[in-house]
Design a protein that fits this description.
- The protein is mainly β.
- It is globular, with a radius of gyration of 29 Å.
- The strands form 6 sheets. Strands 16-17-18-19-20-1-29-28-25-26 form a 10-stranded antiparallel β-sheet. Strands 10, 11, 12, 13, 14, 15 and 24 form a 7-stranded antiparallel β-sheet that branches.
- Helices cover 14% and strands 40% of the residues.
- It contains 9 helices and 30 strands.
Length: 610
């Protein structure tokens, strides 16, 4: 399994500290997510516009129609950036009605529809949880499936089903179909470990009926023993966790301030956690400088490497097809987040347009794990005493005034004798973490944005949950004489090979929005003449991208440094103000053929930056 991608962004700046606590919301920010009352207004406006389709109208997506970037930046820099002077608030909605997809924009200020277009392109909107549940339940009442269950001597009451998108494999026209995979409980809640293989079920969502059904092969179902992950069923020890309940950050609505950082956090049913308007304090200029206008996970592509009938289509786009926000989990205090965390709720529109609340969808907390942000020990300055040395003298002589006199005297004596004592300075690495967990099917994605006092932003996705497993006839590796397309995990159980490609949208505004993308490479140079005993050295060669194509960086490229700079702004030394992009230590690259249909859909995975 390929590791998740990480992007690390670094800007060097001096420190500025803000110590504060959680506060109430003072006014609505233009980038705040849609509120519950706004969801109700949207549902009413849309329903009244389609009165004859009330029972055949579904809300597939409801989110904020963001104002133009220039409008937001003007509002921020305005001396009257209050709720009364907010730009017009709008919402972007995708509905299904009469087997058509409508893209609608609603002006929430005027409470009216200002745009309604029928989408005629390829693909379909994200699935709702309600239609997936209906399709899963439909299968359990389908007579051919019931016969397949009885043929395998299984109990229908112990069968559960799950929905999968079907992908695209060159068809000119694709119906709005999903495929259903069913599993067997009977002794465990970990149904992913007990798939019912050999059965393919296709459900058309517009008709809500089974349109294709095959029962191709019978494969032994893996045992339930040892698969239940509940703590009550395991022998693991109790949780051990200790964290002081201290906070040094300030939250006003969806705006967060901490140390040298200010940013806005919001929730979207597709992207989940969105960070906007991240700014860093420059102590020399005594003001905040913009770094990141907007950042979020734009897609999470998960292709499985099994070309058989029951698995080939599992090439899933977790954000676009299912929604990282729709499947965000309620975070549990003291387990998902430490004691010093502050929690925020999220809302999205259900299939009927009414708001659905996710309690504790985000948590924000300070984290210190004993790491060092910066340190230095200096031994070359005569007479300087490390801070701990004086304390030792206090303990030994037990009088403070003696410590002061002796410290001064010892400094003089040590200097005269030629001794050089140490200066030691250490800064601990404290991080502010904004976290969300999205459970899409069998995987739980722990999504973290980490802000640090060094001026860096680190984005990470941790993968946990349950592996994607298929049934097999094998119980031991020695029996295998073929490529089983995965790893034998237990009796009759294979963990299928697959990838996770996490792609971020990062709109950087480094000290302004007129930025350039600079690629720096290291080049070996030969020393000519007799000017040095060295034969070679390396130097840095910089190239500024002139087009979007020029800015694309392919995965696996030679060592290269990537910096977004503002060529119109200079540091005190005259260098361009910039922010460095550092990919994770290991980068995932697709090994699929360029003409393979999943790779055609996810062609962007061959580019690291672009």
């Amino acid at each position: 399994m390929a590791p998740s991608l990480s992007a690390l962004v670094i800007l060097f700046s001096l420190f500025f500290f803000l110590t504060s606590t959680h506060s109430a919301h003072s006014h609505q920010h233009p980038l705040d997510p849609i509120t519950p009352s706004e969801f109700f207004h949207i549902q009413t406006i849309i329903s009244n516009s389609y009165p004859s389709l009330t029972n055949n109208l579904t809300f597939q997506y409801v989110g904020l129609e963001e104002p133009n970037k220039s409008t937001i930046l003007s509002w921020i820099h305005s001396s009257c950036s209050t709720a009364e002077n907010n730009p017009p608030r709008k919402s972007f909605i995708i509905i299904r009605a009469n087997k058509e997809t409508h893209e609608i924009i609603v002006d929430l200020s005027q409470r009216s529809i200002i745009s309604d277009k029928v989408y005629t392109g390829h693909g379909y909107p994200p699935l709702t949880s309600e239609e997936q549940t209906a399709a899963n339940q439909l299968v359990l009442t389908y007579p051919p499936f019931i016969r397949s269950v009885k043929k395998r001597k299984l109990k229908l009451s112990e069968v559960v089903c799950s929905s999968f998108t079907v992908g695209w494999f060159g068809e000119e026209y694709v119906k709005r179909n999903i495929k259903i995979q069913c599993f067997y409980l009977d002794g465990t809640v970990n149904f992913d470990a007990r798939p019912i293989e050999g059965v393919t079920i296709v459900v058309n969502l517009d008709e809500m009926k089974v349109t294709e059904y095959t029962d191709r092969i019978m494969v032994p179902i893996p045992k339930a023993e040892g698969t239940d992950y509940r703590k009550s069923k395991s022998k693991q020890s109790k949780d051990v966790m200790g964290m002081q309940d201290g906070r040094c950050f300030y939250i006003d609505g969806h705006s967060v301030s901490w140390a040298i950082w200010k940013f806005h956090i919001s929730f979207d049913v597709r992207a989940g956690l969105i960070i906007s308007l991240a700014s860093i304090y420059d102590q020399e200029k005594e003001k905040f400088l913009h770094v990141l206008y907007r950042g979020f996970i734009s897609e999470l592509f998960t292709p499985y490497m099994d070309p058989t009938e029951e698995w080939y289509y599992r090439t899933i786009f977790d954000a676009g097809e299912f929604g990282l926000g729709q499947y965000a989990s309620q975070l549990e205090p003291l387990k998902d987040c430490p004691a010093n965390a502050v929690f925020m709720d999220g809302y999205y529109a259900g299939q009927d347009g009414k708001p659905v609340e996710i309690k504790n969808v985000f948590c924000i907390f300070e984290k210190y794990a004993g790491d060092i942000m910066w340190r230095h020990t200096e031994t070359s300055i005569p007479g300087e005493v490390v801070s701990g040395f004086s304390i030792t003298l206090v303990v030994f002589f037990q009088w403070v005034f003696v410590e002061v006199v002796l410290t001064r005297s010892i400094r003089r004596i040590m200097t005269l004798l030629g001794f050089h004592l140490k200066i030691r300075e250490v800064r601990k690495k404290v991080t502010l973490v904004a976290r969300m967990v999205s459970t899409v099917g069998n995987y739980d994605y722990i999504i973290d944005w980490k802000f640090q006092e060094s001026g860096s932003i680190k984005v990470e996705v941790g993968l946990t949950g349950i592996l994607g497993m298929k049934s097999t006839e094998y119980t031991n590796k020695d029996q295998i004489k073929e490529d089983i397309l995965g790893t034998l995990l237990a009796d009759y159980t294979v963990g299928v090979y697959h990838d996770h490609f996490v792609t971020y949208y990062l709109d950087l505004d480094v000290d302004g929005d007129n930025n350039s993308f600079v690629k720096s490479t290291l080049k070996t140079k030969r020393v000519t003449g007799d000017t040095s005993k060295r034969k070679s050295y390396w130097t840095v060669v910089k190239k500024t991208a002139k087009t979007e194509s020029d800015a694309k960086i392919k995965l696996g490229a030679d060592s290269i440094e990537l910096v977004v700079v503002n060529p119109n702004k200079r540091t005190k030394m005259g260098n361009d103000v910039g922010y460095r992009l550092i990919p994770g230590r290991q980068q995932a690259s697709s090994l699929l053929s360029d003409d393979d249909y999943p790779q055609i859909r996810a062609a962007y995975t061959s580019i690291m930056f672009g």
